[in-house]
Amino acid sequence: MLLRKDITSLLIAIILTYWGCAGNKKEINDRLIAESKYRLGLAYMDDNDIPLARRELLKAVKLSPDDPKIHNALGRTYVVEREFLMAEKAFNNALTLDPEFVEAYSMLGYVCMELKKRDKAIEIFQKLLNYQNIPLHYVHNAIGWAYYEKGEHKKAEEELSLALRYKDDYPIAHYNLGLAYFGMGKFDLSIKEYKRAIELSPEFVMAHNQLGLLYLKRNNIEMAIEEFNKVINLAPDSKMAATSKKYLDLIGR
């Protein structure tokens, strides 16, 4: 929620920021207003009011089209509502204006994955490796996931193993590595990675689900039943729970 005093404080901060700027009065005024609308847009995003956030950010872009952070914020609103083509355009705009905008690279990589542009996603994520203060486990996990989605399981294994070298207690990388091992037919290693993911994150529903399916594939019925029941208990209204119930019915439990 935004209070009047919050808006007043934002405007005062913006005026102080731009006080003494060179340039004509209209340009300065437009930038002041754009900055206020940008910050209001961020505040609305924090309140999870995406339509209002987008309204303010679109106004900000119109007033200050050469400000990359506004395009980036606008792209984030499109991501929340899964409008990925519009998000892609916004993040590309941000990067055209600022080729070193790390957050925009990260978001664009995610968007490319959603759009199934996996080669482009890999190219973008690999660029992030050149920047300092970027969590390398995150980047290698993202690259590994992209390779997995391409069906290149060996390359996925290499990247995910690198991710875990930087951060061994990263459950999603263990889960993804389990998927890569499964794709390579290395079922024992796959089980090991799923178990490690669950050890780190006991409510990791997808890991329980995959583990149940793998146990069922290997005819380890009791262990499969245990995992399917965990899926149902942890996420009773999910599609995975509905599938788990079907498997339990087939098993006769």
Query: Count the strands?
Result: 0
Tell the overall outline: elongated
- What is the CA-based Rg, rounded? 23 Å
Structural class label: mainly alpha
Task: Measure the end-to-end span.
Answer: 49 Å
Assign the CATH topology of the domain at 26-134. Answer: Serine Threonine Protein Phosphatase 5, Tetratricopeptide repeat
Annotated CATH homologous superfamily of the domain at 26-134: Tetratricopeptide repeat domain
SSE string: HHHHHHHHHHHHHH
Q: Per DSSP, what share of the residues sits in E-state strands of 2 or more residues?
A: under 5%
Tell me the number of helical segments per DSSP (H or I, 4 or more residues long): 14
Helix share of residues?
over 70%
CATH architecture of the domain at 26-134: Alpha Horseshoe
Largest sheet: none
CATH class of the domain at 26-134: Mainly Alpha
Poorly predicted regions are none
Which whole number gives the mean pLDDT?
Answer: 90
